[in-house]
Specification:
mainly alpha; about 0% strand; about 425 residues
Length: about 425
């Protein structure tokens, strides 16, 4: 029993080969039929003039069929094993065929311009949104197969190595990210919509709590700085009460009055800070230094470890049971994400743009590698393998050529014989 090539589906391989073999037998049978008719007509030609027309048809059909048989056979092997020049073209030229096929793929499918043009037709975000909002509407077999593949990859990859690579990638991206301008722009956007007001309110309440919790410290500070005369007259106690009550009254006024002067000064401070984060080199350098110290902090490393583990476990659970992954709050969040992708044109445009850039970038980076892979794969095949594969792929069409050559040759011979008889 011959071993089947695992790179192709068995059913498709066998059905194609069987159909090609059947067509080859039919074309060969037509040749023998023409040969038999020719012999019969040649022997009967003296009995009646009509046999001359039959002989002419069969003779020309036999010649045409043999010529096309030779041409078709010469593509894949030497006819009758005779090493005639310019025969066995496919096995002899397989390396050139592989290179031409690879470069055809590169020039017509794997150039950034072609990929970018084709990617414009695809709505990646819309497809993701449709799947997330209606996962049952897609192909269950495809979803199950994709889930098993993802689970197998996640389970078999070196977890420590993959996790380390992922965490290193995240840390490197954070190091490359210029945080200060982003913070400044976020602050400007927040203040434009008064989203910084709760922050100021929180600071005021925090200051009030600090004052209440540290009243004795304020009194002790006043007592230490007061002289004996003030202590003897108990002026220090009244001064402490005045300071504490004044601060408490100021904080209450700040909390109740959104246009309090100190609140306005706090707003001005936020505006200056937002500007410095975007445009002041010294401020940006301090933020950058703080960011790098945070990234190198062991606590952040532990946080990234936990984040990776949670992400990996969530992916494994979703891959092992995609239907359950779409249930509960997580599933609701995914469906909401799907609806957002369908309804928000800005997000769809951003995701599609990202997918297009990522695909074009991958093609630009790895297109030549794919070309080399195709070329080297074809070169690694032995002559018989590539001959069988190409011949099986086009066998039926080639046998039709043989059959058509037999019939057309017969008709041409019949026409010529008729012209000779008439004229």
């Amino acid at each position: 029993m011959t071993e089947h090539d695992p790179s192709r589906p068995i059913s498709r391989f066998n059905s194609t080969e069987d159909r090609g073999r059947a067509m080859r037998r039919t074309a060969t049978a037509m040749l023998f039929l023409m040969a038999g008719i020719f012999v019969l007509a040649h022997n009967m030609e003296d009995a009646h003039p009509a046999w001359g027309f039959v002989r002419a048809f069969a003779e020309a059909g036999l010649v045409g069929g043999l010529a096309d048989w030779f041409a078709v056979t010469a593509l894949f092997r030497h006819p009758m094993g005779i090493p005639i020049p310019h025969t066995a073209i496919v096995p002899r030229k397989k390396d050139q065929i592989g290179e031409q096929l690879a470069w055809f793929l590169r020039d017509n499918f794997l150039t950034p311009a072609v990929v970018a043009r084709r990617m414009k037709r695809f709505d990646v975000a819309g497809a993701i949104g449709n799947f997330l909002t209606n996962p049952e509407g897609g192909s269950g077999r495809m979803r199950e197969g994709a889930s098993k593949l993802i689970a197998m990859i996640l389970e078999n990859l070196d977890d420590e190595r993959l996790g380390g690579t992922t965490k290193t990638m995240i840390a490197n991206r954070l190091r490359e990210l210029d945080v200060a301008p982003l913070l400044g722009q976020s602050m400007v956007a927040a203040m434009r919509e008064d989203r910084h007001v709760p922050v100021v309110d929180g600071l005021v309440r925090w200051a009030a709590n600090i004052l209440d919790s540290n009243e004795e410290i304020v009194r002790a500070m006043v007592y230490e700085r007061a002289n004996n005369f003030m202590r003897w007259l108990a002026i220090d106690d009244r001064l402490s009460d005045a300071i504490i009550n004044g601060l408490r009254r100021l904080l209450v006024q700040m909390e109740g009055d959104p246009h309090h002067p100190l609140r306005d000064q706090a707003n001005e401070g936020f505006v200056r800070l937002a500007f410095d984060l975007q445009h002041d080199d010294e401020t940006r350098a301090r933020v950058e230094q703080f960011k790098l110290e945070m990234i190198d902090n062991p606590a952040v490393t532990e946080w990234l470890d936990g984040l990776w583990e949670q992400a990996r476990e969530a992916l494994l659970r979703a891959a092992r049971d995609p239907d359950r992954a779409m249930e509960g709050r997580f599933g609701e969040a995914l469906q909401e994400l799907g609806r957002t992708l369908q309804d928000d044109p800005e997000i769809r445009r951003a995701i599609n743009s990202f997918a297009r850039r990522a695909t074009v970038g991958a093609v630009a980076d790895y297109g030549d590698s794919i070309v080399r892979l195709v070329s080297e794969t074809v070169k690694s095949w032995d002559a018989k393998t590539i001959t069988d594969r190409v011949e099986n792929a086009v066998s039926r069409d080639l046998q039709y050529i043989r059959m058509n050559g037999t019939l057309v040759g017969g008709l041409v011979g019949l026409t010529i014989h008729t012209i000779i008889v008439i004229f």
